[in-house]
Write a structure and sequence with these properties.
By secondary structure, this protein is α+β, with helices and mostly antiparallel strands. Helix content is 39%, strand content 15%. The strands form three sheets. Strands 1-2-7-3 form a four-stranded antiparallel β-sheet, with helices on both faces. The chain starts with a helix and ends in a 12-residue tail after the last helix. Bound molecules: iron/sulfur cluster (SF4) (2 copies). Residues 129-130, 183-184, 187-188, 208, 211-212, 260, 262, 264-265 line the site of one iron/sulfur cluster.
Length: 279
């Protein structure tokens, strides 16, 4: 790793990134269609720097009230790390840098995939649990990326997949399921091959979205439509001040739509669990 790569990773980690990796912008070319590549967002893009940040704290994972996790998510630090690294690249290196857009512009399709960025930067691999990217050391992390015209040596993608964990592969051999598949049969299905790797994996995104992101932009739109259609002023008032609309507003106001309200498949996942065990 040359000083430049080490330098930017250190800047990212100091700003809150748990892990930082680098991918070549060109690596996206063969994997995603035109319009979704780094060069479509920043002309002349050469590199993509990816930061992974922690989600819930170890304490939040222990809270007996699952709803509390939705208001204690820390999944914004990777964005801070990206902003700080962008500033560093532009001010110190005099190269262009931009945060990669990751929020959907239509449906659930973002202009650039953070999952792919994390994979290409060697930070994680897709899992049986909703295809969530698992970092082999820390498990569930949230990812953000920046695109830059600076030339940086990329990290290699991981050789060994983080999922299934050896314990999950052994469980599958024994009883034909893994912890995540068992906890959410409504959304997840999959098969572990004889070699202990994922042989098949399907994920019902629409079903998961309706369970995992109960409050957010979608619930706000749904509630708003019901409110404007309600003719009874008393009922309308109750709907506006009721919990559902209030929580939906909170979700939009504090950008909680990006934070899941169901973590059950990750709660049972052994990858990175050691970091949740404190005194
Ligand atoms: S987040 Fe919840 S609903 Fe979605 S796959 Fe995981 S356990 Fe199932
Ligand atoms: S519990 Fe975690 S490691 Fe095990 S199969 Fe599911 S996602 Fe993979």
């Amino acid at each position: 790793m040359t000083p430049r790569e080490a330098e930017i990773k250190e800047v990212g980690r100091r700003a809150g990134g748990r892990v930082v990796g680098i991918a070549a912008a060109a690596a996206f070319e063969s994997r995603v269609p035109e319009g979704y590549r780094p060069g479509d967002i920043l002309p002349g893009a050469r590199s993509v720097v990816v930061a992974g940040g922690d989600g819930p704290t170890a304490g939040a994972w222990r809270c007996p009230d699952h709803r509390v996790m939705e208001i204690t998510g820390y999944d914004l630090r990777e964005n801070v790390a990206i902003h700080v690294m962008c500033d560093h690249i532009e001010r110190e290196w005099r190269h262009y840098a931009i945060q990669a857009p990751s929020l959907s512009v239509h449906g659930h399709e973002p202009p650039m995939s953070m999952m792919l960025a994390a994979e290409l930067a060697g930070l994680g691999t897709r899992s049986l649990a909703a295809h969530i990217i698992l970092n082999p050391e820390y498990g569930l992390l949230y990812y953000a990326a920046l695109i830059t015209t600076a030339e940086l040596a990329p990290d290699p993608p991981l050789e060994t997949p983080a999922c299934p964990h050896p314990g999950c592969a052994a469980m599958y051999r024994r009883i034909g399921t893994t912890p995540c598949l068992r906890v959410c049969p409504a959304c997840l299905a999959g098969r572990v091959g004889d070699d202990g790797t994922i042989a098949e994996s399907t994920y019902n995104r629409e079903r998961c979205h309706s369970r995992a992101q109960t409050y957010g932009i979608g619930s706000f739109q749904k509630a708003l439509l019901a409110i404007v259609d309600e003719e009874d002023p008393g009922r309308r008032r109750t709907m506006i001040y009721g919990d559902f609309f209030t929580k939906s507003l909170q979700a939009v106001g504090f950008y909680r739509d990006s934070i899941a309200q169901c973590f059950e498949c990750m709660r049972v996942c052994p990858v990175g669990r050691k970091y949740r065990k404190l005194e």
